[in-house]
Design a protein that fits this description.
Layout lengths: L1 E2 L2 E3 L2 E3 L6 E5 L6 E6 L3 H19 L3 H17 L1 H12 L3 H25 L4 E4 L3 E9 L2 E5 L5 H14 L3 E5 L6 H7 L2 H4 L6 E3 L4 H10 L3 E7 L2 H11 L5 E5 L4 E5 L5 H13 L9 E7 L3 H13 L19 H16 L3 E4 L3 E2 L10 E2 L2 E4 L6 H4 L6 E7 L2 H9 L3 E2 L1 E5 L3 H10 L4 E4 L14 E2 L2 E2 L4 H7 L1 E9 L5
Parallel strand pairs: 1-5, 8-9, 8-11, 9-10, 11-12, 13-14, 13-21, 14-19, 18-19, 21-22
Antiparallel strand pairs: 2-3, 4-5, 6-7, 7-25, 12-24, 15-18, 16-17, 20-23
Helix pairs in contact: 1-8, 2-4, 3-4, 4-5, 10-11
This protein binds NADPH dihydro-nicotinamide-adenine-dinucleotide phosphate.
NADPH dihydro-nicotinamide-adenine-dinucleotide phosphate binds next to helix 8 and helix 9.
């Protein structure tokens, strides 16, 4: 059995208290690894190491920092197969998905910020004849990065890469549920050229290790991705200490389908936006809003496609949906099917746990599930289920589509399917979401701002937004006396 270790000050370390948590493989239900149950003492060591490394790292030239990130990006690519297998085993996602999306994207995140930092600049404001101001953008110091289980290495690297590129030292905690690829990443950090203490990884439970990072007075900024309730706890702890906060939280995203869309393209994309990664992507569209005139046509075609989705062993190359991440999460998602039934919903397909034959018999699998007949304000249509469960809702016109789309407490991402150019421009203006995709889904340019509004979070990641978050702007005003 694999024993995961913390990575502090360039060394692998057991947790101070010697305690470990059991990690299970979602596809089989088998115990396969042990995770350090770190506490505030381990976090203290990591913060001290990061603080000591900060003067060195922040004075590395941009080119030196960029080279370390570039090296790490390349090492990840060189280890694509090993990391993909580890991600799939740890999370339950199809191996193919990890190979095509998760690991390449983790590599790209480091590569992207290796380049971005070489182009980063700041503003200057000229008071003609009086003074010149320029904005000095300096790294913050020690920052905390806390990430969730759904896209483990992908989201972990999405925070760490800009934090390091900007010259900060990092204390990071991956999700307790999927720690393996972060652990494997820690084995590459020295080879990539990072000085000891620049990049520390502390494993453990959120309320203990995560909270200790958030509470530590030397951690000046927190970048967090996870659930809205956890985000609220972190915000409450960080606010009185005036820490910088970036919160990427939950979603209840609409896919809005108009009769004038390219039906076939829309259909295959909406199947994907509903069930990719077992519906466990914060950007998945779980509320499918359909213009009344094509509701029947959509329902028939959609169900036909959904029934063909192959659910099963993540290592099978034909598998489209793997296991849900844990037994607890599977039970939570199944409980929402019961809630939907109690609320009067009709299960059009799916709704049940699956027990595949063979090695995955005890894995946490579930049928892709489609429900209709629910009101927009019921729990099923308001709460984040974060699994392979979607709800179909008809609408009469554009005005009603906007009302339905906006009627949740979340505001992460909406996707819109239409061939009306006017509508494609008009609707994004009134949709309360941080991201609006038109005739596409999950199309990502890493330079664009990423994040949500309302209960979906605060701040933006991506491109300059991330580099601005991880730097402190200081205005320098230089008085310029006129020539005598
Ligand atoms: P959680 O909020 O449960 O956990 C996220 C991370 O926070 C984990 O590392 C967790 O540790 C840690 N944590 C938990 N409690 C605390 C605490 N008190 N202080 C500090 N850290 C803490 O989210 P999940 O892992 O369940 O991830 C799923 C959620 O993430 C969904 O709501 C999803 O929408 C959201 N998400 C948002 C995205 C976005 O970009 N907006 C992208 C992807 C996911 P541990 O695992 O040990 O509990």
């Amino acid at each position: 059995m694999k024993k995961i270790q913390n990575f502090i000050n360039g060394q692998f370390a057991d947790p101070t208290n010697g305690e470990y948590l059991k990690i299970y493989e979602p596809a089989t239900g088998n115990l396969y690894a042990l995770l350090p149950l770190s506490n505030s003492k381990d976090v203290e060591k990591a913060v001290r190491a990061a603080k000591n490394a900060f003067p060195i790292w922040s004075h590395f030239s941009i080119d030196q920092r960029s080279a370390c990130l570039r090296n790490l990006s390349e090492i990840i690519s060189d280890n694509l197969d090993m990391l993909s297998a580890a991600e799939s085993k740890d999370n339950g996602k199809p191996l193919k998905l990890a190979q095509n999306v998760d690991i390449p994207r983790a590599s790209k995140n480091f590569g992207f910020f290796a380049d971005a930092i070489t182009q980063f600049s700041s503003e200057s404001h000229h008071m003609v004849g009086t003074a010149i101001n320029y904005t000095l953008r300096q790294p913050i110091g020690v920052v905390g990065c806390i990430s969730p289980w759904n896209l483990p290495l992908y989201l972990f690297s999405w925070k760490i890469a800009p934090a390091l590129a900007a010259g900060n030292c990092v204390v990071a905690k991956p999700s307790e549920v999927t720690p393996m690829t972060a652990y494997l990443l820690s084995k590459f950090i020295k080879d990539a050229g990072f000085p000891d203490g620049v990049f520390n990884i502390v494993h453990g439970l959120g309320p203990e290790a995560g909270q200790a990072i958030v509470d530590h007075p030397e951690v000046k900024a927190i970048s967090f991705t996870g659930g809205t309730q956890t985000g609220a706890k972190i915000a409450a702890a960080a606010a009185p200490k005036f820490k910088k906060l970036s919160l990427e939280l939950g979603g209840k995203n609409p896919a809005i389908i108009f009769a004038d869309c390219d039906f076939d393209k829309m259909l295959s994309n909406v199947v994907l936006s509903s069930f990719a990664n077992q519906g466990q992507i914060c950007l998945c569209g779980s509320r499918i809003l359909i213009e009344e005139s094509i509701y029947g046509k959509f329902k028939t075609a959609f169900i036909e496609k959904v029934k063909k989705i192959k659910v099963g062993d993540p290592i099978d190359k034909d598998t489209k949906m793997g296991a849900l991440v844990s037994k607890e999460h599977l039970e939570k998602v199944l409980s929402y099917v019961e809630i939907a039934k109690a609320e009067g919903g009709k299960i059009l397909c799916g709704g049940n746990r699956i027990y595949p034959e063979g090695r995955c018999e005890q894995g946490y699998f579930m049928e892709p599930t489609v429900i209709e007949g629910l009101s927009a304000d019921c729990r099923t249509n308001q709460e984040e289920i974060f699994g392979p469960v979607v709800s179909l809702i008809p609408f009469k016109n554009e005005k009603e589509a906007v009302e339905l789309a906006n009627c949740t407490s979340y505001g992460l991402a909406a996707s819109l399917w239409t061939s009306d150019v006017g509508r494609a421009h008009r609707m994004p203006e009134v949709l309360d979401f941080g991201i609006v995709w038109v005739n596409c889904w999950l199309l990502r340019d890493l330079r664009t701002p990423f994040g949500g509004v309302k209960n979906s979070g605060m701040g933006r990641e991506g491109g300059w937004e991330a580099l601005r978050f991880f730097t402190e702007p200081k205005n320098v005003c230089i008085k310029v006396d006129p020539l005598d």
